[in-house]
Amino acid sequence: MRILVINGPNLNMLGIREPDIYGKQTYADLCDYVKAEAEKFDVEVELFQSNHEGAIVDKIQEAYGKFDGIVINPAAYTHTSVAILDALKAVAIPTCEVHLSDVSTREDFRQRSFVAMIAEVTFMGLGFEGYARAMKYLKDRIS
Ligand code: CA2
Predict the structure, then answer these.
(1) 143 CA to centre of ligand 1 in angstroms
(2) pLDDT at 80 over 90
(3) Residue 19: is its pLDDT beyond 90?
(4) Mutual orientation of helices 129-142 and 27-40 as an angle, nearest 10°?
(5) Alpha-carbon distance 79 to 135, whole Å?
(6) Ligand 1 pocket check: which of 78, 107, 131 to mutate, most ligand atoms within 8 Å of Cβ?
(7) Whole-prediction pTM value?
(8) 11, 49, 71: which to mutate for ligand 1, most atoms within 8 A of CB?
């Protein structure tokens, strides 16, 4: 079973600013965490991060026929990107949405998620654990 984990813009800056919202750990720490959890669940995982909407769309398209599940934290594109929503619809790969913070308690502009329209489940406010919960969900759902 192969899972693609996609992280959107600025998540490569984790640990550098706003530790009160996103924690003190870095993006490298997140990658290590995701790989270790994937091993526990016996799933193969690939991590991808980009600050560019089109690069994320390209990666989702390339996942067609190669991955069994997608875990995505689209970051700011959560709230704006019809293109990412359409790409996820096009490939029809089971998808989970993850947010480090609890977006439901934050600014009004974060209350809309395009990806939530296609995601089977959303984990928010759990920090890194949201990624593990999403991988476990996909593992149980697909196997
Ligand atoms: O809570 C999440 O995971 C978010 O997807 C994070 C996005 C935000 O736009 C979403 O509304 C919720 C922002 C990621 C930016 O990460 C930073 C990391 C370090 C310093 C500043 C921002």
Answers:
(1) 31
(2) yes
(3) no
(4) 30
(5) 23
(6) 78
(7) 0.97
(8) 11
